[in-house]
C-alpha cells in the first residue's frame, strides 16, 4: 500500500472517531459546560501523551526548541478557535446550520493553501470540494432561516479548523510528531481552562457528582484517549504524506459518520436529501483520490460520448 493511501485511510479513521463520539460529547455537555469539558478533555490527553513521552520517548526532549514550541502553540490556537467559536455559535444558531458552516472548512482550506502557501489545488481536488460542499448542505441544512450572529461565530470556527489543517501540513514534516502534538493539545487545554474561568461555572468540573457522572466520565475517557490524544497524533503524523485539501475532504466525512452513528444508536432517520448528501461527500473524497488527470479524462470521455450520441 502506498504511503499516501495509508495516510488517507488513517485520517479517515480519525474522521470516524470524531463522528462516532459526537453523540457522547452532546450528552456530556448537558452536565458540564463545553469550555470546561474541553479543558478537562485536552488536559487528560496532554497528560497521557506526556507520560508516553517521559516513559518511552524521553530522547525526543532534546529536540524541544523554541521553533517547535511556537509552531505547536500556533496549531493549538487555531484548534482552540475552532472549538471555542463553534460552541459560542451554537448559543445563537441551530446545530444543522452550525454543522454546514463548520464543514465549509473544506472550501476554505484550498483557498488558504493558495493564499498562504501559494499551492494551487488540482482539478480533482476542486471537483471533490464542490461535490462535498453540496453534500454537506444536503446533509446538514434542515434549517434555512436567515443568517445571524451565531452563524458568523461558526464561520470563524470553520476558518480556525481550516487554518489548523493548513499549518499542520506545513509544520508536521519539520518536527517530531509526539512533541508537536503535545504542545498543541496543551495549548488548547490552557486556553479552554482560561476561557472557562472567565465565561462558565468552571467549579462544576471539580464537583464529583458532575465529573464522575456516567455521561461525563464516559465521554471524557473516550474523547481524551481516542478523539484527542490518538486522533491529533495521527493527523500530525500522517498529514505530511498527503495534501491539506485532501485532509479537509476526508474530515468532511465526520458528519456522515455522525449520521450513521445516530441511525444505529439513537434510531434517527435521514431524509432522502441527506442520504444524497452523504453520497456526494463520499464522491468528493473519491474524486480527490483519483490519480492526476484521471478525472479530466473521465469527463472528456463522457462529453465525447454525449456528443457522438447527439450527432447520431
UniProtKB/TrEMBL annotation:
GO terms for cellular component: plasma membrane. The chain crosses the membrane at residues 12-32, 38-56, 68-92, 98-116, 123-140, 146-166, 178-199, 211-234, 246-266, 272-292. Keywords: Cell membrane, Membrane, Transmembrane, Transmembrane helix. It is a multi-pass membrane protein. It comes from the Bacteria. Residues 6-140, 149-287 form the EamA domain. InterPro entries: Diverse_Substrate_Transporter, EamA_dom, EmrE-like. SUPFAM superfamilies: Multidrug resistance efflux transporter EmrE (SSF103481). It is found in: Cell membrane. Its main location: membrane. Belongs to the EamA transporter family. This is Membrane protein.
